[in-house]
Each structure stands twice: as C-alpha cells, then as structure tokens.
Amino acid sequence: MSLVLAGALLVPLWLYGKLEITDLTQAVGRLSAGTLVPALALYAGMYVLRTIRFRYLIPAAERPAFVPLLGVTAAYTMAATLLPAKIGEATFVLYSKRVCNLPATSGLAALIVSRLLDLASLTGGFSIACFALAASDVYPAISWFTALGLGLAAVSAVCFFLSARGNLVVLLAIWLVRTCGLERGRLGKSITAGSEQLAGALRLAGRDGMLLRATLVSIPIWLSTFMFCALLGRGFGLPADLSLAEASFGSGLAIVTSLAPVSAFANFGTLEAGWVLGFEALGVPRDVAAVTGLGLHVVQVASCIVLGLIGHMIMGSVKRA
How far apart are alpha carbons 52 and 213 in whole angstroms? Predict the structure, then answer.
C-alpha cells in the first residue's frame, strides 16, 4: 500500500513537471563519478557522526561500544526510511536493546533527543539560508524570506530547549493524566510508570556536558546533509551557479515536506514536492527541479539500503561473537 501511495504521489509531480523518460536518462547520464563518490562519502560520514551523537546521549554506565552502535544506527536508519508512517523509528530502541543491551527507556530517550536536535538543526540551517537569500537581494520579488527565516529560527529554538528539558514535557503530561483521573486502572498506572521512567531517562540523556557535544555534532551532520543534496542536485542538472544558501533552501524545504505523516514508501512524492516548490521559487525550470529531486531521492534511498544491510551484518556478527 505504501508503494501504491508513493506512486500516486509521484504521478502529479510527473505531470506537473511535464517530464519525459528522456529527461531521466539525460539526468542519469550527467551524473559523474566525481560527483557521486564525494556525495556518498558525505552520506556515509553522517552515519558515523550520528553514532557518535547517540553515544553522547547515552549515560556513561550504559554507553555501548562504537561498532555495534554503528550497525544499529545504519540498520535503524534504513527501517525509518523505508517503513511507512514513521514506524521504523521504533527499531532503534529494539535493535539497541538486543545488540547493545541498552535499556529501552535509555534508547528511547537518546532517540527522542537526537530527533529534536535534528529538527532544531534542520530548521536552524533552513532559517540561515532564508536570511542569506534575503540579504543577498538576488530575489527582490520574494519578500517573505525574512519572515520565514524568523519562524524557522523560533521553531529551532523551541526544539533546542526541548532537547535539553524534554523531561518537563513528559512530567507535565503525567500531571495532566493524574489531574484528569486517567491514572485509575492497571493500564493507566502502567502508562504513568513508564512515562516517569522516560522522564528520568530524558533528564539523564546528555548530562555532564554531553548534550552540548551532541549539539555540536549535529552541526556537521546537517551541513553534510545540505552539501550532499547540493552535490547530487548539481550532478543531476541543477544550475552550477546555485549558491549553498540556494541549495540549502530548496533541500531544506524538501526535507521539511518529507516529514509529513504520509504513509508513502521512503517518503517518495513528499520530498520531491518540497524540492520542486523550493527550487521553482528560485527560478529553476520546473522540469529540471522535478528530475533532479527524483534522482537525488533514488540515490539517497539506494545508499540507505546498502548501508542498512551492512548495518544488519554488523549486528549479526556482534550477536554471534
């Protein structure tokens, strides 16, 4: 069903961009090894950085070794990308518990904080791109760059705050449950007890300066993400004179739209929609934006699958050892 939905979302994009099969073949022909190899190196490097960040967010007494956690990160990322409705996110907790003996609450807390840092870094980088484009005066007809940048900066600040004090949100939810009398019964008490454990794990995640280190690691993670998109976008046919700010604007909007809770396979359709809207607003021809977005997404998913399978092999070797 997710494959069917992805196809249904891509059909309007194909029609909107007025694409032809020759457009795809020409785009693939333009992609050179000199572009693909550095892009894949950036993508693989992000997995290493994400593993380092996860280790910072896990208490020292429970912190797993790097290699097993790298396998978990790669395998979980594949599941999170391919499975519909974001249900693959839960595999990090499952894999890290089975392979690294990490308690479920600690794994869930590290996952929540890392995702909040991702949102904070994404919206922060997106806002910087908006401010840079507003200051450049290259697009005088677009008056909303500054307003969008301010809104994104506010979202980024909220996400950074929640990454540091996410336990307060859980404690507030527990208070509301108890105030409304929903704690009565075995299920209510079980949910409350589990939430209290999660609040405690969130309070411990990234303590002793580790949250700051995790935040600093998030910066090269997302800089690499924007550079990965810029390299492949140009390789598939985006204008070579596009600046990093312009590439970050288009790719940032694409990533934001891919977060929509739509159960399409690997976010096909939603990512391309944001990519086309973003780059078309910057004057890129509609067909060029459509074909480059689709090409980028195919390479990203293929890379994710390859690294995910390697991650499963690492997890299997660790368990056998």
Answer: 9
Considering only CA atoms, give the Rg of the chain. 21
Q: DSSP for 138-188?
A: S-TT---HHHHHHHHHHHHHHHHHHHHHHHHHHHHHHHHHHHTTTT-SHHH
Residue 3: how many other CB atoms lie within 10 Å: 12
- Determine the 3-state secondary structure of 65 from DSSP: coil
The span from the CA of 70 to the CA of 49, in Å, is: 9
Question: Does pTM surpass 0.85?
Answer: yes
What CA–CA distances, in Å, run from 230 to 29, 205, 246, 250? 18, 33, 9, 9
**pLDDT band with cut points at 50, 70 and 90 for residue 321:** low
The yes-or-no verdict on residue 205 having pLDDT over 70 is yes
**Domain ranges across the chain:** 2-320
CB-based contacts of 209, cutoff 8 Å, min separation 6:
none
